[in-house]
């Protein structure tokens, strides 16, 4: 029962569901019926639903049939009307077709005209669009054409500006065109082209500058010379102090209007041709150089954002050029032109760098310039030290000094420190002094070799004044003497004195423009003059004095000459004082050593006189030919000795102009040497035997010498002072000739001994020679009593002399 109820309930539910689905199918759009049908197939009442569906379809068919049957008569009527309308419609169609044909025929021309109008309208619109587009494109093309023209004419900086304007202003407006893309793609290439071309111009400029640095430097140094000459004219005296032009003055001279933002010339020649004409104003460095390539390249690289690259490249290349410029040629020391070209190149290099420093902003800076200058200064000084050391010509050294001063003055105008150059000039000054000393050594040697060593004869007042004008000499007695007369000195005195003054002038020339104080100049001149006197002149005099062929007359004249030169030293002191304006009383003033030099030369000449006299005496003594075994006596002195005495008399007669002490010393020295030589002649080992007769002949020669000494060949000796030179010989000869051995032996050793100057050794030597003679020449002496007694006496005396010698040594 319950089951039947439940089944009934389920049947009612499914029936309700099927009804709902059918209503949805009837009311729902066909496109959305899918989900509804799916709910049917998902259920288990498919069969029953289909039955419901069939039933619903039959119901609808019946309703349709009822409706059709209800409206059939009306349908038939409508069809009948429609058939009538079809006939009318056909007529209307024919009329419309006919009307259309007529209309087409009538509107054909209008259509053609309208078609033409349409084409015109289209063309007009296209033309308008084209004009608009061309209006935008033409400025771009014009700018590009202008850019190519500027590139073609090498106006690279304006080209770069045009390129920038084209890229940022014009091309963005027409960026969608293909030709614009081509232009945009070419812009980096154009920039690189401009960059490369400007760099090529810069390289050409640098190469041109390197080749023409000497011309630029020559011009700058000429202007510095002109300014210095102008300063000298204004001051009306040689410039010793430092008078520098200011930086402003330098740039007034070199002033040239140049635009730093754009090149003043599109022709990149680098160096302009300038002819040197003395009458025309010397052109400035900027008149010779076209710096526009540098400015252009700098601006171009700055615009391209590569300024640092450009600065590094420029500085690197200029450093390389600086090293080349600072490398001196190997033969620079041979001529002044070699030094001049070297200095011109250096000045030209730094004039260009200084101008770049002041006309560009940061391309080079002061630190970079100072670094280059330090390098240049050290290399220049080293080169000058090396090459100047080869200079042996003082004129070349002096010219080099003037060139270095001009070089330093020129660079100082541009603000470069040059103190080290002036310090180096002080070193060259020492070398200059050495070359002067060598030159004056030759001058002195020539003067001394060509001198006749005779007093200067003068036959007129003019000749006398000429000599006095050359040498400060005053002698009242000589002035009173009538012409012709003679100066006491020979020609080399005024010549040497004049050359010493010339040397001082030469030293003074080197000190000019070195910015030295008067005291420093005075000290330099005095030291150099002292070297001239103590070394050069002294050596020259010594060489003359030591010459082998020099005679006594020449030596006597040298002594007289040096005496007068010694007196002239005070005038040399005054001369130096006058040209330096430094009083000799000033503290630390160097004194001249001329007095010492001439004294030393005079003493050397005196010694040479003594030596020369002694040599002459030795030459005469070599003519001595004593027969030591003779028993005869000539009763006159030997011929050689008579000639020797005559020579000494004539020689000492020449000594009248010598100082008394010199003549007396020479005479005493000659007599002592003669006495010593005679003693050696008597005692020499080759004379093994001698007789009393030979000793008496020798005594005659000694008496002749004593007679010469007593005659007073040179005034000034007291009584028998000169005879004392022969006292040793006299006492020895008296002892043997008088055979006064008892007195000698008895008084030996006493202060008042008669034979005080006789040495027992000398006496024994001479006695042995007489003893050997007595033995050998008298074979039968033992048979004669007197001879035997004499021989015994000689033996006894010899024995006693040996005793004296032994007791003396003990």
Automatic annotation (TrEMBL):
Gene Ontology terms: cellular component: exocyst; plasma membrane
Signal peptide: none
Domain Exocyst complex component EXOC6/Sec15 N-terminal: from-to ranges: 52-221
UniProtKB keywords: Coiled coil, Exocytosis, Transport
Keyword Transport belongs to the record: yes
Region (Disordered): 253-283
Coiled coil start-end: 82-109
InterPro entries reported for this sequence: EXOC6/Sec15, EXOC6/Sec15_C, EXOC6/Sec15_C_dom1, EXOC6_Sec15_N, EXOC6PINT-1/Sec15/Tip20_C_dom2
Biological processes, Gene Ontology terms: Golgi to plasma membrane transport; intracellular protein transport; vesicle tethering involved in exocytosis
Tree of life domain: Eukaryota
Pfam families: EXOC6_Sec15_N, Sec15_C
Domain Exocyst complex subunit EXOC6/Sec15 C-terminal residues, every copy: 420-769
Compositional bias ranges of the Acidic residues kind: 273-282
Family the entry assigns: Belongs to the SEC15 family.
Known function: Component of the exocyst complex involved in the docking of exocytic vesicles with fusion sites on the plasma membrane.
Name of the featured protein: Exocyst complex component
Organism name: Cavia porcellus
């Amino acid at each position: 029962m319950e089951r039947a109820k439940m089944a009934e309930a389920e049947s009612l539910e499914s029936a309700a569901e099927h009804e709902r689905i059918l209503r949805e199918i009837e009311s729902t759009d066909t496109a959305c019926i899918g989900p509804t049908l799916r709910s049917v197939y998902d259920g288990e009442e498919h069969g029953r639903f289909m039955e419901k569906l069939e039933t619903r379809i039959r119901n609808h068919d019946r309703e349709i049939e009822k409706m059709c049957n209800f409206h059939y008569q009306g349908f038939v009527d409508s069809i009948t009307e429609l058939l009538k309308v079809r006939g009318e419609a056909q007529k209307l169609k024919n009329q419309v077709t006919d009307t259309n044909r007529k209309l087409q025929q009538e509107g054909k021309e209008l259509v053609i005209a309208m078609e033409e109008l349409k084409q015109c309208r289209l063309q007009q619109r296209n033309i308008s669009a084209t004009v608009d587009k061309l209006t935008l494109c033409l400025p771009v093309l014009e700018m590009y054409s202008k850019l190519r023209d500027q590139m073609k004419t090498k106006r690279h900086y304006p080209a770069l500006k045009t390129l920038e304007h084209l890229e940022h202003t014009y091309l963005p407006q027409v960026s969608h065109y293909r030709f614009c893309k081509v232009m945009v793609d070419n812009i980096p290439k154009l920039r690189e082209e401009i960059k490369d071309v400007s760099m090529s111009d810069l390289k050409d400029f640098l190469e041109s500058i390197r080749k023409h640095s000497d011309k630029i430097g020559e011009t700058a140094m000429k202007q510095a010379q002109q300014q210095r000459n102008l300063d000298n004219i204004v001051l009306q005296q040689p410039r010793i102090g430092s008078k520098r032009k200011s930086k402003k003055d330098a740039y007034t001279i070199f002033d040239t209007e140049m635009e730093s933002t754009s090149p003043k010339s599109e022709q990149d020649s680098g160096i302009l041709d300038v002819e040197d004409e003395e009458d025309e104003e010397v052109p400035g460095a900027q008149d010779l150089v076209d710096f526009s390539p540098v400015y252009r390249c700098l601006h171009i690289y700055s615009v391209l954002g590569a300024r640092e690259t450009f600065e590094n490249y420029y500085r690197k290349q200029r450093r390389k050029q600086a090293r080349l410029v600072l490398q001196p040629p190997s033969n620079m020391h041979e001529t002044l032109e070699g030094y001049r070209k070297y200095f011109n190149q250096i000045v030209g290099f730094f004039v260009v760098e200084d101008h770049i420093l002041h006309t560009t902003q940061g391309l080079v800076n002061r630190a970079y310039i100072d670094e280059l200058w330090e390098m240049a200064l050290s290399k220049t000084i080293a080169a000058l030290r090396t090459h100047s050391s080869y200079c042996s010509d003082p004129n070349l050294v002096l010219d080099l000094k003037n060139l270095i001063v001009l070089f330093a003055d020129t660079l100082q105008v541009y603000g470069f420190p040059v103190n080290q150059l002036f310090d180096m000039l002080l070193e060259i000054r020492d070398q200059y002094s050495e070359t002067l000393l060598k030159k004056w050594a030759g001058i002195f040697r020539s003067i001394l070799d060509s001198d006749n060593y005779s007093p200067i004869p003068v036959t007129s007042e003019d000749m006398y004044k000429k000599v006095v004008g050359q040498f400060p000499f005053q002698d009242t007695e000589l002035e009173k003497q009538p012409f012709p007369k003679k100066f006491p000195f020979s020609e080399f005195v005024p010549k040497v004195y004049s050359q010493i003054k010339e040397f001082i002038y030469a030293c003074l020339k080197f000190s000019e423009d070195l910015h030295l104080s008067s005291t420093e100049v005075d000290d330099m001149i005095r030291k150099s003059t002292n070297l001239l006197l103590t070394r050069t002149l002294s050596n020259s005099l010594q060489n003359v004095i030591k010459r082998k062929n020099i005679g006594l007359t020449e030596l006597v004249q040298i002594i007289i000459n040096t005496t007068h030169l010694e007196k002239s030293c005070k005038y040399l002191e005054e001369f130096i004082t006058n040209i330096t304006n430094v009083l000799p009383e000033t503290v630390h003033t160097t004194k001249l050593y001329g007095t010492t030099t001439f004294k030393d030369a005079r003493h050397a000449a005196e010694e040479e006189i003594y030596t020369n006299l002694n040599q002459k005496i030795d030459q005469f003594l070599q003519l001595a030919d004593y027969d030591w075994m003779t028993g005869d006596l000539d009763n006159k002195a030997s011929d050689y000795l008579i000639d020797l005495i005559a020579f000494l008399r004539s020689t000492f007669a020449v000594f009248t102009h010598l100082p008394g002490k010199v003549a007396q010393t020479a005479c005493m020295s000659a007599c002592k040497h003669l006495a010593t030589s005679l003693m050696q002649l008597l005692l020499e080992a080759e004379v093994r035997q001698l007789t009393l007769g030979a000793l008496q002949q020798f005594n005659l020669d000694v008496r002749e010498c004593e007679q010469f000494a007593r005659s007073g060949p040179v005034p000034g000796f007291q009584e028998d002072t000169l005879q004392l030179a022969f006292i040793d010989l006299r006492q020895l000869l008296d002892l043997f000739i008088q055979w006064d051995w008892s007195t000698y032996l008895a008084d030996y050793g006493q202060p008042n001994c008669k034979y005080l100057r006789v040495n027992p050794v000398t006496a024994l030597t001479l006695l042995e020679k007489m003893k050997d003679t007595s033995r050998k020449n008298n074979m039968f002496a033992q048979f004669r009593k007197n001879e035997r007694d004499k021989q015994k006496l000689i033996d006894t005396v010899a024995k006693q002399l040996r005793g004296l010698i032994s007791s003396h040594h003990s």
